[in-house]
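Onboarding guide, step 5: your first structure request.
Type a short instruction followed by the sequence, for example:

Predict the 3D structure of this protein.
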Amino acid sequence: MSWRSPTSRSPRERIKLDRADSRRHHRSMLLQELFAAGPASRADLARSSGLTRVTVSDLVAELLAEGLVEELGTPSESRVGKPPTMVGLVADAKHVVAIDLSVDDQVAGAVLTLEGEVVLRDARAREGRRGADAVSQVQVRELATELVARSSRPLLGVAVATPGVVTSDGVVLDAPNLGWHDLRLADELTAALALPVYVANDANTAVMGEFVFGSRGDGGLLLLRLSTGLGAGLVLGGALLHGQGGAAGEIGHVQVAPDGPRCGCGRLGCLETYLAVPRLRRELAAGDPEAVLADAGVRLGQALAPVVATLNLGEVVLSGPADLVEPLARVAEQAVRDRVMPVSAEQFVVRTSSLGDDGVLAGATGVVLAGELGVS
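The system replies with structure tokens like these:
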């Protein structure tokens, strides 16, 4: 059997593909509207999407048949003429399995609804394991397999949030804290689970969770994830910033002290060496907690100030253990304010994630929604 490239397909084949892509896009438009704005009538969806009423009715019928949406009856307020029937997203129609590898010394996982609500959760101790064993033998695959089996609904997909630089097709290029390099994690888990699997950087996943399910302002959203390492996720203009090579947000490996502690990346004095959760826990146990957190918060503020001034950010969100991120947020906010122009500092805040430490899990749901349904 001969192979033909996409460009060598016949005009009839190309038309079929174009129609399929167009239909998927139109489905995504309706799902995004229902996800963001809540229940709507078919006429409302036609107006907001720009699609014809016939197309909307056809797509809604398809989504009803799949169980992704449901009819909710007519609105309570009276209108002239026949009242419309409202339709809404069924949050519990399908589940998502999420795995979080950013938690200190454990692999955390959960089954969630399409609205990011945790249905059940589980965790495994990492026990210091690194490299391929953490995936193939005890950690991600076994936990994901168990959570898949325990879900009471059909699964839309699986998402794994990991520290490090991750490509768009789920290859972990470099995760020093896990000892992973060029690991095709998405492919391995897809083969094991027979489900769509998405792998993304943990900070990018957390910022997606905050953007989709949490609190967000009108400007850009920068989220820093404090865990075994330190990473940042940035949403600008409603889009997640990936950067060249997918390495946007690797603020943890900015050098802040040339003679500082050695980092997992091999260099000295990276910001991560002062703010990674394991290091902070050791320093807090050995010294003056107030002084340790003050030093770490100031270093964080020093690194953030140029970013805040350059992008004119109104807020920075910290995600991680509450007992650490809450005091760090206060110190870092003042450190940024001391280093930028008054116009940049006037309304600037550093706050903790509105989703708590479940932001990564909720964000993993957003990753699957974006990949499978086009919802973002």
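Each response can be followed by summary notes, for example: The chain is about 40% helix and 20% strand.
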